[in-house]
Amino acid sequence: MSRTVFCQFLQKEAPGLDFQFYPGELGKKIFDNISKEAWAQWQAKQVMLINEKKLNMMNVEHRKLLEQQMEAFLFQGQDVQIDGYTPPAN
């Protein structure tokens, strides 16, 4: 049986992550408060950020930037801003 969490991003009960994807205290906070659906949304944004900003995950500064964006997206409701990207209209 999958576990459920009250997802802070979606503001509803939803299936939780199967295991902690991110290390440390932030990883624990994500595991306890973010759903699979919200994590999948973040992963899509993360790929866009890495590609568009040409981030190198071996670079400490690039990893810090990505972590700051992740925390802002998941817990503060801030959308990821990527220069030159316009989301498709519904």
Q: What is this entry, summarized?
A:
The chain is mainly alpha-helical and 90 residues long.
Question: What does this protein look like?
Answer:
The longest helix has 17 residues, at 36-52. The protein is mainly α. Helix 2 (36-52) runs antiparallel to helix 3. A hairpin with a 4-residue loop joins strand 1 and strand 2. It is 49% helix and 9% strand.
Q: What's the arrangement of secondary structure elements?
A:
Elements: E1 4-7, E2 12-15, H1 24-33, H2 36-52, H3 60-76
Antiparallel strand pairs: 1-2
CA gyration radius, whole angstroms: 14 Å
Order of helices and strands: EEHHH
Tally the helices. 3
Widest sheet: strand ordering: 1-2
- The end-to-end distance, rounded to whole angstroms, is 35 Å
What sort of overall outline do the alpha carbons produce when their principal axes are compared?
globular
Q: What is the beta-strand fraction?
A: 5-15%
Largest sheet: 2 strands, antiparallel
Instruction: Find the structural class using helix and strand composition.
Output: mainly alpha
Unreliable runs: none
Q: What is the helix content?
A: 40-55%
Give the number of DSSP strands: 2
Mean of pLDDT: 91
